């Protein structure tokens, strides 16, 4: 007989949420902390949700925590902070190296987002760096880095493969001694996940963030917000970290976010529902200020309301994916596909998820472009191998 | 050490506060260096100047400190930073 899912400890979740509020009240946190029965689970959960650096400063002086727990929390905080500082230094180095060789790179999330929303690179958990470069610059960028300590799982010659550039979106590479992983993206969304991306990722109006005296390019604010809303939806908002990202970005830059442009982009991409759902979740949990259109939509759309309740309930039961790789589970994939604006959208998405050539199909063999139709055979072979021969 | 000798902070050096501690990180060697309150204050002034002489002039103007003592402390601090690769002086 299956054991029923363990319910959260009393006070566990409200205390975690209270620590993530932008206007966190120490008295409220202290009061809610009295309700936490298992601090080991609480700490693990804060870490899994990617909000440990926000939680730690609010708890480290509470008398209710014994010295052993405080020492453990200090150690975890230092581990996150030191890793973040090292990765920030590496981001600055790599962006400068690419720039010196005429390659434009745009930093996504990681230290830049931490600096933008918290004013401190150590206040947000991240485990890798994300850089966006033009597709034509992917091979030169990775070739350059291969001479500066980086090695990739797949030969970088694959980046000359037109099929890979068409069906994929990123290529990871790792520094052999520092262990820093960089995901190099040439796009942020796959064709199968959205109807058509309307976001100008390489806009001349892109935002710049100052990291340790260096100006680092990132996305325009409305494009960044749209990306964060999509990214959170893709993972069914199962981590508080993604909800905090959206909350802080809106709070800090509310007046300069072009909401009309954001809604128009979402409409054209058929992802309006995901956008409103993300805004509804952040508003419910963190009291994020919303403008009138979003307010009206999330208050009146029963589909948004119902999905929001499901997400909050799952967060409350701490049903979080512990896989740090952020791989989307099949269970979540089904939920996410239903977040599409139209039936046509999710049917299309199901079919494309199954039959469209994937990056991993291309990595099986590096075929010249004139033989690229053979990748459909590779796709079929892998589908049979992975699903029927198990 | 000549007080008029220009110094530079390598681009590999990052300043960061962690858990109420001020740290310098040198990505060239991967080492962290903790600064006490006085060290953090001196470093802050050093980032806005190019010679130790300029740092001293600024600090005696703002703080109630004895010039001789400040000179001695700043030189000792700078020597430690140089040893750690966190500061370099141009050759006279």
Brief account:
The complex is a heterodimer of chains A (390) and B (92). Chain A is an alpha+beta fold and 390 residues long. Helix content of chain A is 54%, strand content 8%.
Structural class of chain A: alpha+beta
Low-confidence stretches of chain B: none
Total DSSP helices of chain B: 3
Radius of gyration of chain B: 13 Å
Biggest interface, residues from each chain: A-B, 19 and 13 residues
Our estimate of the beta-strand percent of chain A is 5-15%
Shape, principal axes of CA atoms of chain B: globular
Largest sheet of chain B: 3 strands, antiparallel
Strand order of the largest sheet of chain A: 1-2-5-4-3
Mean residue pLDDT of chain B = 92
**Approximate strand percentage of chain B:** 15-25%
Helix content of chain B: 40-55%
End-to-end separation of chain B: 10 Å
Give the CA-based shape of chain A: globular
Assembly type of the chains comes to: heterodimer
The radius of gyration computed from the alpha-carbon positions of chain A, rounded to a whole number of angstroms, is 22 Å
Largest sheet of chain A: 5 strands, mixed
The count of DSSP E runs of length 2 or more, i.e. the number of strands of chain A, is 7
**Head-to-tail CA distance between termini of chain A:** 26 Å
